[in-house]
C-alpha cells in the first residue's frame, strides 16, 4: 500500500508524490475539505455530482422554464437551490424534477427494500428508480442520467466492495458517463468494475453485464475489432446463461449486430437480428425500447449494404417509417432514440430514391 495523508487519508504512491501534491497540487488547501467531506473518494464524488447537476440544469433550462418539481413542488430546490431537469419521455407539464429530489426518492425506495429484506425482484424494481422516470417509466438519458449516476455513486461508495448496492452504483456511474459523452471516464470506471468483479469472483451473469458495457465503450472510442470480439463472446455467453427469451440476450444480440454493422459485415449482422427480433416482439412487446432498437439496427443493415436489393431498401424504409410513429408516441420527439430513428429514416429514403429513380432518358 502507498503512503497516505495523516489527516484526510488520501493515498499516494510514495512520500515524494505526497510532498509534490502538497506543495504544487493544492492539497494544502483541500486537505481539511477532503476530511470534512468523508475522504478523498467521497469528496471527489460529491464534487463531480455538483458539477454534473449544474451541467444537467443548464442543458434542460429552456425546457424547464416556469415549471416546478413534481416531487417537492418548488421551482428551486429548498436546500441546494438547483434548477430543474427533465431527461425522460414525459411531455407537456409532466416529469420536471430536481436531480436531488430524484436521487432522494430512489435512495428512500432502495433503503426501504433493504431494511425490509424484500426479495431480489422487488429490490431490482426499486433500484430502477435511480435511472427510470416513475411517471413515464422510460429511462433517463444524456446529462440527466450522468448526474444521477454521480448521485448514486456518492450515496453507496462507502459500502463494502462486495455490497450489491455498490456494484450497481458503479455500473450506473459508468452508464451515465457514457451517455453524457465522457468516454475516457466511462472506460476507466468500466475497466475498474470488471477488474474488481473478476477479483471478487462475481457470477458469470455479473461479468457478462460489465463486459457488454465495456465493449460498447470500446466501440464508440473506435476500437471496433476489440468491441466486436468481446460482444460476440457476450452474446454467446448470454444465450448459454440466460436463454433465448431473456432481455439480457436481446441486448447482447443488438450490441453484437451493431458491432458487425460498424465493421461492415452486413450479412453477419442480419443473422442475430432475424433470430431475435420475432422473439423480442413477442416477449417484450412492439413498443419496448430494445425491440425498437433491434428493428432499427436491422433496417440500417438493409439500406447500408451495397448489395441491397430494391426490396431490401423498401423494407428498411417501411420499417423505419413504422418505428418513427411508435418512437414518437412512446418516447417523445426529443428523445435521442426518436431523433436517431428519424435521421436513419431520411437516409434510407434517400437511398431508395437513388435506386428507384430512372436514369435520364427513361432507360432502366
Structural features:
Serine Threonine Protein Phosphatase 5, Tetratricopeptide repeat; globular; single chain; 3 domains; mainly alpha; 364 residues
Could you describe the 3D structure shown?
The chain has 364 residues and is mainly α. The longest helix is centred in the first third of the chain and has 25 residues, at 40-64. It is globular. Helix 11 (247-262) runs antiparallel to helix 12 and helix 11 (247-262) packs parallel to helix 13 (289-304). It has 15 helices and no strands. It has three domains: 37-183, no CATH class; 203-284, Alpha Horseshoe (Serine Threonine Protein Phosphatase 5, Tetratricopeptide repeat), CATH 1.25.40; 299-357. Helices cover 68% and strands 0% of the residues. The chain has helices at 15-23, 27-36, 40-64, 99-115, 120-127, 142-156, 164-179, 183-200, 204-220, 224-242, 247-262, 266-283, 289-304, 310-331, 336-356. The mean pLDDT is 89.
Largest sheet: none
**Amount of helix:** 55-70%
Strand-pairing-aware structural class:
mainly alpha
The total of beta strands comes to 0
Number of helices: 15
Which oligomeric form is depicted?
Answer: single chain
Distance between the termini: 75 Å
Q: How would you state the average pLDDT, rounded?
A: 89
Percent in strands: under 5%
Amino acid at each position: 500500500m502507498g503512503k497516505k495523508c495523516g489527516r484526510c487519508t488520501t493515498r499516494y504512491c510514495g512520500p515524494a508524490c505526497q510532498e509534490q501534491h502538497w506543495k504544487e497540487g493544492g492539497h494544502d488547501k483541500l486537505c481539511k475539505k477532503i476530511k470534512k467531506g468523508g475522504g478523498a473518494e467521497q469528496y471527489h464524488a460529491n464534487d463531480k455530482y455538483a458539477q454534473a447537476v449544474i451541467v444537467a440544469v443548464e442543458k434542460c433550462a429552456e425546457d424547464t422554464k416556469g415549471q416546478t418539481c413534481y416531487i417537492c413542488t418548488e421551482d428551486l430546490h429548498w436546500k441546494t437551490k438547483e434548477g430543474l431537469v427533465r431527461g425522460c419521455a414525459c411531455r407537456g407539464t409532466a416529469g420536471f424534477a430536481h436531480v436531488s429530489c430524484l436521487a432522494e426518492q430512489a435512495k428512500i425506495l432502495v433503503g426501504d427494500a433493504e431494511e425490509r429484506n424484500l426479495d431480489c425482484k422487488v429490490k431490482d424494481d426499486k433500484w430502477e428508480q435511480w435511472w427510470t422516470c416513475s411517471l413515464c417509466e422510460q429511462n433517463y438519458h444524456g446529462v440527466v442520467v450522468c448526474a444521477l449516476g454521480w448521485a448514486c455513486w456518492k450515496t453507496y461508495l462507502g459500502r463494502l466492495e462486495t455490497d450489491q448496492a455498490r456494484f450497481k452504483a458503479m455500473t450506473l456511474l459508468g452508464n451515465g458517463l457514457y451517455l453524457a459523452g465522457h468516454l475516457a471516464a466511462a472506460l476507466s470506471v468500466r475497466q475498474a468494475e470488471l477488474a474488481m468483479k473478476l477479483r471478487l469472483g462475481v457470477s458469470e451473469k455479473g461479468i457478462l453485464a460489465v463486459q457488454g458495457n465495456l465493449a460498447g465503450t470500446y466501440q464508440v472510442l473506435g476500437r471496433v475489432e476489440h468491441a466486436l470480439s468481446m460482444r460476440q463472446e457476450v452474446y454467446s455467453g448470454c444465450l448459454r446463461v440466460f436463454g433465448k427469451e431473456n432481455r439480457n440476450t436481446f441486448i447482447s444480440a443488438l450490441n453484437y449486430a451493431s458491432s458487425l454493422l460498424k465493421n461492415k459485415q452486413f450479412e453477419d449482422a442480419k443473422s442475430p437480428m432475424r433470430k431475435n427480433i420475432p422473439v423480442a416482439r413477442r416477449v417484450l412487446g412492439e413498443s419496448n425500447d430494445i425491440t425498437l432498437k433491434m428493428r432499427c439496427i436491422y433496417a440500417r443493415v438493409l439500406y447500408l449494404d451495397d448489395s441491397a436489393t430494391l426490396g431490401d431498401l423498401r423494407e428498411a424504409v417501411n420499417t423505419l417509417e413504422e418505428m418513427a410513429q411508435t418512437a414518437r408516441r412512446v418516447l417523445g420527439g426529443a428523445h435521442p432514440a426518436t431523433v436517431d430513428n428519424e435521421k436513419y429514416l431520411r437516409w434510407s429514403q434517400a437511398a431508395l430514391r437513388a435506386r428507384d429513380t430512372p436514369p435520364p432518358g427513361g432507360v432502366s
